[in-house]
Amino acid sequence: MDLSLETRTEGDWTVIAVGGEIDVYTAPKLREALVELVNSGHYQLVVDVEAVDFLDSTGLGVLVGGLKRVRANDGHLRVVCTQERLLKIFRITGLTKVLAIHDSVAAATAQ
Q: Cβ contacts of residue 84 below 8 Å, gap of 6+?
């Protein structure tokens, strides 16, 4: 399965809606999108993974890399996820302590 990316602006935040699978084959596409956004001055990012069917360690690495990039510019990266199978991956890897995970885009952009 392929990876779809849609970017939109909500207030001061740039929302990246991700769909499909984030794996070793598709993760570079997400990484490239995050790098381009940060390089063009977008430091308040929300990555919406509600439509993601599969996420592997490569995808997790891309999210952490994106977080490091925005933090280097005093920015924030927040994740929108309510899918229990993905939340379990975030919990098992300890990334719930690193990534701000919200249940909706509205909640992620509210703060």
A: none
